[in-house]
Amino acid sequence: xxxxxxxxxxxxxxxxxxxxxxxxxxxxxxxxxxxxxxxxxxxxxxxxxxxxxxxxxxxxxxxxxxxxxxxxxxxxxxxxxxxxxxxxxxxxxxxxxxxxxxxxxxxxxxxxxxxxxxxxxxxxxxxxxxxxxxxxxxxxxxxxxxxxxxxxxxxxxxxxxxxxxxxxxxxxxxxxxxxxxxxxxxxxxxxxxxxxxxxxxxxxxxxxxxxxxxxxxxxxxxxxxxxxxxxxxxxx
Length: 236
Fold this sequence. Notes:
- There is one protein chain.
- By secondary structure, the chain is of the alpha+beta class.
- The protein has helices at residues 9-17, 37-48, 59-71, 75-83, 93-101, 114-128, 162-172, 181-188, 196-210; strands spanning 2-5, 25-29, 53-56, 87-90, 130-135, 138-143, 146-149, 157-159, 178-180, 217-220, 224-227.
- Helix 2 crosses helix 4.
- The longest helix is centred in the middle third of the chain and has 15 residues, at 114-128.
- The model has no long low-confidence stretch (mean pLDDT 85).
């Protein structure tokens, strides 16, 4: 039985219980990075919502990433991101096991190959993270942190901050409905201890980025914000 990066005692035991004589052959051994700082920064970026997808090629790498997230005090927030906003993509089912154990819902290709994993990323992420924003006679397309004008062949993109993009995404899921500030705090800044001033700042930046479409973001006094479907030339 080939071991890729770490022992597989559960698999070896299951084979032995079924009468097999198991010889474990370690192809390589996975070791932690000499410099943990990049991993810590990645965990923090994931917690902030700056990351849209994470690709893994070995189960030990996933375990190490989660351990670094815990050491940085971001474990629960990173898990919340992996379960909602971030696409966790693995090279195969064995690699995905640590994510399955924490309910993160990873995906992997039918064939455990890097090329197949990258292809799955290119076909899965765009549809997963794409939201249409009605704006009168046209449609804005929110793709990741990019806001595109037009649905078919957008000519230009406006780059939003991650927080502003998540606010617009939350509003675009229910056009016309009021989304309260507490709900936006939970969805946009989970586990970060942000207050309503963070929501107001993100909305201000979002309106500035929207330019002529700024009036699509309506303030509902004492309740929250809603996405209008018709710009009116002014911001309220």
